[in-house]
Amino acid sequence: MSGKRSIFEEVGGADKPTKEAPRGGMIDAGKRGARRGIRAWLVVLFTLVVLMIAVGGLTRLTDSGLSITEWKPVTGALPPMSETVWVEEFEKYRAIPQYELLNKGMSLAEFKAIYWWEWGHRQLGRFIGLVWFLGFVGFLIARRIPVGWSGRLLGLGALGGAQGAIGWWMVSSGLEGEMIAVASYRLATHLGLAFVILGVIAWFVFLLGREERELMQARRGREGRLFGLATGWMHFAFLQIILGALVAGIDAGRTFTDWPLMAGGILPPDMMGIEPAWRNFFENPGTVQFIHRLSGYLLFAYGVFAWLKGRRSANEATARAFATAFAALVAQVVLGVVTVLYIAPWHLAIAHQLLAVVVWVLILRARFLGQYPLAQSIRRG
To answer: What phi, psi does 211 have (nearest 5°)?
Structure first.
């Protein structure tokens, strides 16, 4: 006969396993996914997009962008495999204005040199699309995408697809009429979307670098004024990037090579010399470069204001982020002046473009820390 049982003993308690103690961090349970793995994948994509921007810049500087006159997203992945095909591609190029007005008499060997630049540019775009696709599908099949992130990552792929289509829209503008290069406003659209994609990736990387619970807690300490200030800084920097693309699109940086004056005056000569007047803002080298310079001065002034406000943040990491972004902006202004004075050689032009990426990301980081400040044990006065 069994012994007496306590009236407080749960019925069937002897057959039940010991109840586990509550565990912490349940806010992330079941929805964190492979945050670290996805973040690493996004960093790879970010690096590839930066490389794409550099290759695209070199393609433009070598006047190679119009060497491939057709858009074949699939079959175009293969380069000409025989001399006969090379001659066919060369004949297509000889039918466009750039050959007639700029490169008439070019040899087949010279054509191959510019062809490989453009082919490599397009091939890199295909590779980036493949890296996105394999990563997204892999994480999706493994069910390792955190809750709420599938749409974000799919949207990133859609932006990449749109970039490919806009790339062809840009190239097609230089194949007719008397064009010897692509339309500057289409180049600006193409580069602008590249920076949007970089910004989206960077923001995702920042978010995935911290757990959901940490982000929720950090949001309570949000510094709204600094976040708004950085948001304005971000938009201003983006405008300057677009204006820089307009300068690059018509080689305006090699037209007026003195500083701080332009051709010895405050205003460049014949600023509104093209009819109709609106075309001066896209096609007049003096007007386009003047606007880019003026915007740069205003952006620098805004940067000073943002730095002075940001350095007063009670969060040390946020204050440091604003200071770092401003330091990069100063370096970019100096490099821009040097690039003009030396008539925009390719290595300075590319360095100026890549430093713009650094400035862009650092401003985004300052904005992110304004929204999600890092916790610290001792608050600064």
So the answer is: -70, 155
Tokens found for residue 241: 């990037």
DSSP assignment of 29-56 equals TTT--SHHHHHHHHHHHHHHHHHHHHHH
Cis peptide before 276 (omega within 30 of 0): yes
- Dihedrals phi, psi of 28, to nearest 5 degrees: -95, -10
Q: How far apart are the first and last CA of the chain?
A: 74
The average pLDDT across 112-119 equals 94
* Residues 74-99: tens digit of each pLDDT: 878 899 999 999 999 999 999 999 99
- 165-201 exposure pattern, b = at least 16 Cβ within 10 A, e = fewer: ebbeebbbbbbeeebbbbbbbbbbbbbbbbbebbbbb
Banded pLDDT at 109 (limits 50, 70, 90): very high
How many whole angstroms separate alpha carbon 77 and alpha carbon 189? Answer: 24
What pLDDT, in 10s, does the model give residues 245-290? 999 999 998 999 999 999 999 999 999 999 899 999 999 999 999 9
Residue with tokens 């599938």: 150
Entry field: residues in the chain: 381
pTM, entire model = 0.88
The rounded distance, in Å, linking the Cα atoms of 296 and 244 is 10
Buried b (16+ CB within 10 A) or exposed e, 67-103: bbbeeeeeeeeeeeeeeeebeebbeebeebbbbeeeb
Q: What angle do CA 111, 117, 120 make, to 5 degrees?
A: 130
